[in-house]
Amino acid sequence: MEEREQQALDHIKRLLKDNTIPKLEGSLAENPVLQEIHTDLKAIREVVYAFSSGDLSPEIKVRGIIPGCLKSLQAHLRHMIWQVKMVEQGDFNQRVQFMGEFSTAFNNMVCQLDTTLNMLKRKEEALTALTNNLRNEVDLRNSAVEALQESESRFKFLASHDPLTGALNRRSFIDRAMAELSVAVERRVPCCMVIMDIDHFKHFNDTYGHLAGDEALRHTVSIMAASLRKPDFMGRYGGEEFIFLFNNADRSTGIAIAERIREALAASPVKIDGGQIPLTASFGVAEAMDEGGPPDENYIRQLISNADKALYEAKKAGRNRVVFFEPAVSPLK
User: Fold this and answer.
1) Count of alpha carbons within 13 Å of 14, Cβ hemisphere only?
2) Average pLDDT score, the chain
3) How far apart are alpha carbons 181 and 191 in whole angstroms?
4) Domain ranges, residue 76
5) pLDDT at residue 185 above 90?
6) Domain end (from 51, 72, 88)
7) pLDDT grade, residue 333 (50/70/90)?
8) CB neighbour list of residue 280: distance below 8 Å, 6 or more residues apart
9) Within a domain: residue 109?
10) 166 vs 163, 237, 270, CA distance in Å?
11) How far apart are CA 175 and CA 194, in angstroms?
């Protein structure tokens, strides 16, 4: 083999194997075939090097079987990158068909991702449904608790109040009065027990009917409640009779409060069937006894009896008035 031919072969070998591209110099540069081989291999090297570093952008201008294969590989890889992006966006129908075992692995991966995400989606839907069910259950239970609390409050109210007028019933009034009077006796605070009776109420019922009578009772309670002070309270004693405890009220204060209620009621006729019917009431006032031990039911009973006696005197004197109980002897202990 001639020396020039050996040099050409060595140059081609270096183009294929060396890390750096050798220069085509001297007499080798004068060989047009070698020049073409050098140029093509140099271009192929640059493309392969770019591919190996992940750069698929170089334009392959060289012709031939190797450049053609590189162009085909470049197109496949670019398409695969696009497919990967589509999978990233949630398109799991993508399949790779040109890379043998890699294609199989890639396609299996996409199928597994699709299966896993569908399973996660179903679990998420199940969890969402469960969360909604739990939320609905909590809402139902909260509503039930609220309804129960409301019902309990309503039952407690009904148990302690007169259902017609909303005033305390007799038992609840006496219980509260006993508690208030116990504190008042301990602190030596004066109090007054008052009993009120609507004048001629039986005649009112007989004349206008019991429904009108019920409206008159509700009207009366509304007027009287608006005339009470904050520490005072009232209850329905029975029929058209109502009972009051005026807290921190001596004789003059108790009489003044009772007079205010009496005047307010007399000035506020009840409206029935388009008409206005005047109402009046009689009051008996008794001051709480400030001697003896803590109040018990006998104490309350005696105090109510005193107020009732004063009420009787108010009726006897012509009704629509306030009478204070004047004991014939010293206060009972």
Assistant:
1) 13
2) 89
3) 8
4) 3-88
5) no
6) 88
7) very low
8) 198, 199, 262, 265, 266, 319, 320
9) no
10) 6, 12, 17
11) 16
Q: How far is it, in rounded angstroms, from Cα 204 to Cα 38?
A: 129
Q: What single letter denotes the amino acid at residue 39?
A: T
- Over range 10-27, report the average pLDDT: 87
Report yes or no on 211 lying in a domain.
yes
Of the residues 240, 241, 259, 263, which is catalytic?
240
Distance CA 207, CA 25 (A): 138
Domain count, the chain: 2
What does the pLDDT read at residue 322?
Answer: 97
Question: According to DSSP H, which parts of the chain are helical?
Answer: 3-17, 32-52, 65-88, 101-160, 170-187, 201-208, 210-227, 251-266, 297-316
Residue 233 exposure: Cα atoms within 13 Å on the Cβ side = 18
Closest CA to 308 of 193, 195, 201: 195
Task: Report the relative pairing of strands 241-246 and 233-238 from DSSP bridges.
Answer: antiparallel
Q: Quick check: is 292 in a domain?
A: yes
* Residue 182 and residue 318 in one domain: yes
In sequence order, the 6+-apart residues with CB closer than 8 A to the CB of 34 are 8, 11, 12, 24, 28
Q: Is residue 306 part of a domain?
A: yes
Token digits for 163?
Answer: 């259902």
Where does a domain end: 88, 118, 144?
A: 88
Name the helix (H) or strand (E) containing 93. Answer: none
Judged on CB neighbours under 10 Å (0-12, 13-18, 19+), 73 is: middle
DSSP state of 53: T
Both 81 and 200 in one domain: the answer is no
Question: In the annotation, is 240 catalytic?
Answer: yes
Place of tokens 């019917």: 277
Beta-carbon count within 10 A of 32 CB? 8
Separation of alpha carbons 165 and 225, rounded Å: 11
CA proximity to 216, closest of 204, 200, 231: 204
